[in-house]
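Lab intake sheet, docking and co-folding queue.

SAMPLE TYPE: protein with bound small molecule
LIGAND NAME: NAP
LIGAND FORMAT: SMILES
REQUESTED OUTPUT: full 3D complex as structure tokens
PRIORITY: normal
SUBMITTED BY: R.K., bench team

The fields below were copied directly from the construct record.
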Amino acid sequence: MYRRAIVTQFGQPDVIQVQEENTLPAPDSDEVRIRIEASSMVFTDTLIRRGIYPYLQKEPPFTLGYDFTGVVDAVGGDVTAFKVGDRVADVTQIGGNADYIVRPAAQLIRVPSHLNPVQVETLLLSGMTAYQMLHRIAQVKPGQRILVQGGMGAVGNMLVQLGLLHGLDVVTTVSADNFAPLRTLGAEAVDYRTSDAVQQLRTLGGRDGYHAAFDGVGLSSFRRSFGLLAPEGTLVPYGFVAPARNVTLKTPLGSLIGGAMFASSSALFSLWSRLPGNRSVKGYDLVSYRREFPQAYTQDIQQMFALLETRQLNPLIHRTYPLHQIRQAHTAFSQGGIRGRIVISHL
Ligand SMILES: NC(=O)c1ccc[n+]([C@@H]2O[C@H](COP(=O)([O-])OP(=O)(O)OC[C@H]3O[C@@H](n4cnc5c(N)ncnc54)[C@H](OP(=O)(O)O)[C@@H]3O)[C@@H](O)[C@H]2O)c1
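RESULT FIELD (auto-filled):
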């Protein structure tokens, strides 16, 4: 018997059912079966549950879970790269919130077996999004100043930590009760709820402004972040937490709204990039970027594993939930106030 968390129809957390299956899935000759140890519970999973995630066109029922890490449990006849007992991971958009999954061997990332699976899981989407936006997209250099909107978020906190590790000056927006942990890390923090937040950010940005701004908050926040850039600065928009947090509409209207948010932003970005000056807008999506540059993902995740191993990076884990409480984990997102990451533990 094994369990998987299925979305029966798009909607609120009560559409999720943890279902028990009697037969384990069998791998084909080029596939591997994995016993999952830790899987995803991020804001994006809530978009998928609601049917407003424009990068996935799939109708329920399906298994939730953007990514996972686990241990190889069975291998197909042609697979030579992995053996039973190896620890692996993958980013699949759906399917991770299950005790077992079958994946093509060619897709899998090898994970050092001594790393903590819950910490590893935080790197696969959240950590790698931060790492690649900093190093591949904005190509930041030590000594530069960056703005991170939402520095207590899953991606935001990784951006803060990785930025500081790289020798950047980091300024971030959070709610005021999160100032202390961010200032302890070495970042400057501004309360995004205060009326003069933009003015405070402008002051902290100094004479030149920010070399790069990373914004997963969305829409009007993109405009504010763009306005705070240095003359050669780069805005990296990557998400839409603020407008999407309370959208509960189901498809097809929900999908339309999700699509419209992305489309209108793309139109805006191309306009901004044509404004006088050299400021630029460079969007990022991990799944598309990995599809286009698979070697970059494989290389970069090794850097992240090394940072974890040497404890230079300390993923902020808000809470782990067992798979049978996944509905509660989804509910937590509608309230906000999560510090770092929630992870589903299958152990
Ligand atoms: N492009 C990609 O490849 C990629 C990868 C991962 C995620 N994403 C997207 O990026 C977004 C963020 O993802 P996540 O996993 O980091 O979400 P998250 O963990 O929910 O973090 C979002 C953070 O934003 C903060 N926030 C909300 N409104 C804000 C505002 N007006 N100003 C400043 N901060 C604000 C929240 O703080 P409070 O809770 O205190 O309000 C929270 O800490 C989502 O839309 C997600 O779908 C994109």
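REVIEWER NOTE: Residues 123 and 304 are 7 Å apart (CA to CA).
SIGN-OFF: pending second check by T.M.
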